[in-house]
Amino acid sequence: MKMSRRHLALTHVILIIFAIWSVFPVFWTLVTSFKPESQIFSTQIKVIDQPTLQNYIDLLTRGDFVQWAINSLFVSLVTTVFAVFLAATCAYAISRFRFRGRSASLYLFLVAQMFPAVILLIPLFSIFTNLKLIDTPWALVLSYATFAIPFCILMLKGFFDTIPYELEEAGRVDGLGPFGTFWRIVIPLSVPGLAVTAFFAFITAWNEFLFARSFLTSEEAFTLPVGMATFIDPFNQPWGLLTAGSVLITIPVMIFFFVAQRFLISGMTTGGVKG
Amino acid sequence: MKRHLRLAGLVAGVAIVAAACSTGTASTAPSKAPSAAPSGAPSTAPSSGTGDLAYKGEITYWNTMRDIEMVEVQKQVDAWQTLHPGITVKMTLTPFDGADKKYETAANNKTAPDIFRSDVGWTSGFAAQGMLLDLTTLFPAGFGDQFLPAPLATGTYQSKLWGVPQVTDALGLQCNKTLLTAAGLTAPPTSWDELVSAGAKVTNLTEQKYGFYMRGDSYWSQPFIWGWGGTLFTANAEGKVTDIGVNSPESVNGWNYLKDKVLGTVTPATWDFKTDYDNMNAGFKAGTTMCILQGPWAVADILKGAAFTDKTNLVIAPVPVGVNGKTGSPVGGHNWVVGVDVGTNADKTAAVVNFLQYMTSADQQAVLAKSLGLLPTNIAAYAVPDVASDPLINQWNAVMAAATNRSGVPGAQGIYDSFGKNFQLFLTGSSTAKEALDATANTWETTVFKNQMAQ
Amino acid sequence: MGSRGWVAWAFMAPVLLVMALIVFYPMAIGVFQTFTNIDNLNQGTRFRPPSWEFVGLQNYIDILTGKDTKFYPVLAWTVVWTVVNVFFHYTLGLLLALTLNQRFRGRTSYRMLLLLPWAVPAYITAIAWLFIFNGEYGLLNNVLGAFGMPRVAWLSTFPWYYIMPIIVNVWLGIPFMMVALLGGLQSIPGDLYEAAQMDGASRTQSFWNITLPQLRSVSSTVILLGCIWTFNIFVVIYFITGGGPGGKTDILVTYTYNGFTLGQYAIAATYGVIIFSLLLVFSAVYRRVARES
């Protein structure tokens, strides 16, 4: 159905309004990061007046920003690999095998998201202390992967459901075992679904703040959100630094996002979120 | 199939039993509390300067200062290390927010730092739990006399010394001299009535020009309690609470004065509580606010404001009086505390004592006073030329003289949660002053001071 | 697809192990604590022996009978918070999905821009919104001031301190719904619409009679997930209002977290179990209703 002119105009109006609303806070953060501190607290509406890079310079010279970025990157990438691998194997089992406890497992993964993660903080801290994982990235990798996995499993299960089993049967005929068909046939066909899952796991890890603050104690181990929080004390929120830091923290996610973008849509549409 | 389900059930069962056997959040078995004083601790270390210390190795120090402040402290640390080769002081930044919890957790897990910069409200709590090394006999005789009495008291609990005072502070009235003149004043107002009547002349609420800017924080509400003869709570020498006075009629009067006379006249009637600290500073720095209540920790940042390029434009005075000449503001600050485990190593103890003597010496405190505007706790530091000639620090003396001591009751830092929430309910009109203060007193009695009431 | 049980469990084992360690074991500890009066003063540490006791169901009774005066008000607001947010997440997400489901130039660019709230870290955008709402220097007030309208202390004034976090959370949650529903829309067979058109059905009729029913499965899943996530979302309230003023905007998770920071471990754990149970019951009822109709 070709769209009428009026319909097209209406479409654009709606989308423009929402697009502005979507982008606006990010845009405003970006703009603020280039303002000198004195102009940030202004009663006038100023977009760009005297742009300066001072906030970025301060950010990179104070504290160990580069080290924190490396830590965040490490934690996020390892979490992503870990979570995607575990979720994929599990989702495959649920999708392909009929076994007792299958629907119970599915329900379990739904239920696991209901317990507020913040409440697990204290017991987890004890557990990780006993395992000597405090102040290492592994405490975070384990935690983040565990919190991302249930949703990833639900997503990937739906995705695997759409891949015809005949392809795997053909693989079996060729002599592949169950893991072989999984690895050689199903996985390559699932790139969009895996991309969505990877993106979700990555941003879960990259964006997380509370657990990182609790489990990391030494400055060299901080991830970006925790490091940024050291600039803040209850008595002082340096907005210039915060906005500059926010911009820098957002960049890797944006990169990942643009790269994975077309897979994101097709991954969510095929299979994706079905009951 | 069945076998696997049974196995899963067995695993789950073991997990439940294991959880049931654990004694709560810490899983180490309780051990006897170590004795308060270490055996054979020498106290012959010289007061500062070179001297051969037997200890060689690392001393860990968690500092809760901001990173820009720590740069200055690092210089002092480096200097001390040069005097004592073979000892490294590993100073790490611990964000202030939540640092007490972090320290407690570390102490419970035997990973506490050797030295910790403890807020004065935390020290007695750590001491009561046995986490700190008793410092009473470790320093030379008369060591404590060199300090101002109020800060020294904050490091004392049950007549023993647990913390060496590092810095002291209190809220003072900070004003913009240009605006004071515009309001017809030659000096900062001495009473709230005076501030309200004079401040009205420079106030225009729609243009965001204020005679005063308030915060929705319980710490900032205290001048309106003490200034009317109210109090928070009273404790005895053992650190037990004998009386909770925060909801006395005087306190109620003070808060009502704030609401009826101050809010909406010289300061907005409502404002964002979450960001009021930044807004208060920004308005003051920009020269649109005449007076604010603020502490010495903020002075370095305030002087960067457009209104204070001429430093003499900033004047500091004691908190205005309320009724009957009464005033008060809570004394804050920080102590150096030493972890109890240090006491097992006599050499390390000596090194730590030496370090603390160095850092609290008049010269070193004067350095931080000059570079960061922090108030020394060492009396002699005020006589050091750099400090004596600093007009702002001299003005703070008057503030500290009028400031109220805080009682060293373990866990007292827990009062602020309910105190602050009820203050905000009062400010937004959801509660009356009496209701808010009664609720606060009730929470303190039943929760915060549950085990600390003297009975 | 055989019933080779052990293969399936072999695939599932790693996930189940990790979840047992990170989720179920701490949960079990938490549940255990709800039957005690453990707080930071009576828990056993290396410095003093534990002095906590079992209290049976007392914590639950205190909370559910209202002896803890905060529970029901916070619960009420949490429910309102969830319902309002998910309502807007769904309707606006559906609107955008329908709009994007057409062919026109620039649709990929719009899609990218509309997904932004999902990609950017939530605590960063929460802080950005916090600053926009700032009562003295925020952009919103500056714009109002420029038009001569009065400035408002948004985060301390009723009813705005309820509305502002909702605006932020709706903003945060739309992209997910939009993409999920877009996926659902794209898998609706086109001939259904063609047949309807030939029968003379209008656009609105197609929407109600074809689109919505076809979206049932996706819709019910995303609404359930949305409810669970929104009920428990921590960062928005924490960073925007801090639960204030005076604790009025606390939802159950932020209130519970506050209890933890004050050392009231047993009570906070009890809240956690109650939150969990509420969601469990809700999801069970929801799925039963969804299956029946």
Strand content of chain C: under 5%
User: If strands are numbered along the chain, what order do they take across the biggest sheet of chain B?
Assistant: 2-1-3-13-6
CA distance, first residue to last residue of chain C:
30 Å
SS-based structural class of chain C? mainly alpha
Extended strand count of chain B? 13
What string, H for helix and E for strand, traces the elements of chain C in order? HHHHHHHHHHHHH
Low-confidence stretches of chain B: 1-49
Helix content of chain B: 40-55%
Q: How much helicity do the residues of chain C have?
A: over 70%
How far is the first residue's CA from the last residue's CA of chain B? Answer: 63 Å
Mean pLDDT of chain B: 85
Low-pLDDT regions of chain C: none
Quaternary: heterotrimer
Shape type of chain C: globular
Structure class of chain B: alpha/beta
Would you identify the CATH H-level superfamily of chain C? MetI-like
Number of domains of chain C: 1
Could you tell me which chain pair has the largest interface and how many residues each side has?
A-C, 87 and 97 residues
What is the count of β-strands of chain C?
0
Fraction of residues in β-strands of chain B: 5-15%
